[in-house]
Amino acid sequence: MDIEKIRSLFPITKEAIYLNSASKAPLSTLVQDRLQTYLKAESNPVGGKAFHRNEIRVLLSRLLGGLPEEYALVTSTGVGMGIVAQGMDFKKGDNIVIPEREHWNNSFPWLQLEKKGVEIRFAKINADNSIDPEAIQKLIDYKTRVVAIAAVRFNSGFRPNLSVIGKIAHEKGALFVVDVAQAAGMIPIDIEIDQIDVMAGCGFKWLLGMHGTGFLYVNKKASKMIDSVLPGMFAADTLYDKFSCYDDSRKYETGTIAYSLFSAWSAGLELILDVGVKQIYEKALENTDLLIDGLNEKGYKIVTPIRKREERTAIVHFSTGSLESANTLYQKFNAEKVLVTLQGINIRVSPNFFNMKEEIRVFLDLA
User: Fold this and answer.
1) What is the pTM (predicted TM-score) of this model?
2) CB within 8 Å of 104: residues ≥ 6 apart
3) For residue 295, how far is the Cα from the chain centroid?
4) For 11, left (φ over 0), alpha (ψ -120 to 50), or beta?
């Protein structure tokens, strides 16, 4: 991985130290150029359409597994999760198991189902913010329809063991639904090994796209259990006066989406495939090795579970002890153009593969 070449693709690296990829990806020149190419084509559309939906599906399937037609193009993680929650035929007495304190995109769509008599069961997280599969397993019974979890937790950076939890869900006949917003493009994901039935994600974080891009993956088995919610012209064969729904994930698509954003996003996905997720993940662990050692030396409480290396990601949370001290430190970082996220009394640091060790050391010197 030629770090200088990669950094040249991200203009932000010349202006600031960007340690905030868990919030959003900085725009690369590749994505900017692809966007401009689309706009030029739209300004002179003699050559036909500037974007074809299947281009993104193919790239996603190469990156995450599955078949292109098992991916629906949606505008966000929340939209994808909402389609699943509303598309299943839940009955009174059914239950859904999720860990407590999940991101709202993986709690609100399920909690809304309580008005239908669906029980939402929250698995307890450990004191160190990790999650034991056993905590989920003890809540599952034969009325559990869905087990849903984030592949990487936004508020701690913890990486649960998806394959173990997926197996537990399947043993009781439940669908395994995964929010990959903070995972796709940063950690290796394999839908077969991880036993994922459904996953939803967004393009604007580790997948190097922009807001307004996302996807919903549904495998063949799960597709039979999840109905189309808002079918538009791209969800079925275009026959007059007849609805002949596709028998794959395309049935979850509605009408026109922001093709300009999706076209630009393809350049970000191509870059990830070129660099390789394995290499990106190895770089993430190298970066967090430095962060964890440095923050420990300074006496900060690390909120992220760090006991097991395989549970770590590119995200590290640490506590300053109070709202006032957290805000003071956050403002200090901003003044020096070191970009991170403030979450209450915690600060979230999330470097990516374009960051250098020297930048981590500058961050630690300021902390």
Assistant:
1) 0.95
2) 78
3) 26
4) alpha
CATH placement of domain 33-272: 3.40.640.10
Interval 130-165: pLDDT, tens = 999 999 999 999 999 999 999 999 999 999 999 999
The per-residue pLDDT for range 78-126, each reduced to its tens digit, is 999 999 999 999 999 999 999 999 999 999 999 999 999 999 999 999 9
Residues of the chain with CATH 3.40.640.10: 33-272
CB 333 within 8 A of CB 366: yes
Question: What H or E segment, with its residue span, contains residue 318?
Answer: strand 316-319
- Is residue 167 within 8 A of residue 128, CB to CB? The reply is no
Quote the CA–CA distance of 261 and 113 in Å, as a whole number: 32
Q: Return the CATH number of the domain spanning residue range 3-19+276-366.
A: 3.90.1150.10
Is the four-CA dihedral 305, 307, 287, 209 of positive or negative sign? negative
